[in-house]
Amino acid sequence: MKPVFIDFQEHGDWRGQLVALEEDKNIPFQIKRVYFMYDTLPNVVRGKHSHKSLYQVLFCVTGACTIGLDDGRERVDIRLDRPSRGLLIGPNVWREMYDFMPGAVLMVLASEYYDENDYIRDYRAFLDSVKEKQE
Ligand code: T46
What we know:
This protein is mainly β. About 10% of the residues lie in helices and about 40% in strands.
């Protein structure tokens, strides 16, 4: 599967860098929620689920971490290691986040409020739902 990156304009000058995120402009949805994770332990794998309808853009605003994406046919592993690069993840994609650098902060912009009913947390059920959509 092909990851969808959004590379944001860096407004750099002698003071440093600045990146601006705007809903329905460089973020392709209305932003209903922002969350971030930090202090992630080195051998931890987060995620391990897909979403039924949620769109999200993930950024490693500090440090780096790896995102594994799986559409039920193929898996790709992506190293997110710069704050100006976002990774867009839509529905029906299994995701895992791992190999967090110490101090890494992974920030996520989401198209919907938190809703546990939108999650598929069982890998077999995820494969079945992908198969159903292909039929
Ligand atoms: C995703 C990946 C990239 C909330 O109360 N509100 C929230 O908005 C979120 C995201 C989580 N929570 C609670 C639910 C759990 O008790 O925080 C706890 C940890 O959530 P979870 O185990 O789902 O976290 P991750 O890191 O496995 O997954 C998260 C998002 O949940 C998910 O949508 O795509 O990051």
